[in-house]
Amino acid sequence: MIRSELIQKLAMTNPGLSQQDIEAIISTFFDEITNRLAANGRVELRGFGAFSTRARDARTGRNPRTGELVDVDAKRVPYFKPGKEMRARLNV
Fold it and tell me: Is residue 12 a contact partner of residue 4, using CB atoms and an 8 Å limit?
């Protein structure tokens, strides 16, 4: 599902909300998750899962096209851990 499909689905199930209202809600939702992760925080949605970040150490990688060694800087990457209810629904 892509963002526009999510907005369309919400519009069908909530006819009292305008398209712009739904887009604002979705944007706020994703922006707040991103802002919390950027502040090294954690976002937990009960029954769905938890978003957090993980640290990756600096390493030496390889350019797949040329085979040349390249330095890859240390970074933080997003991580999602599904909740118990989601895992149960996926493994029915």
Answer: no
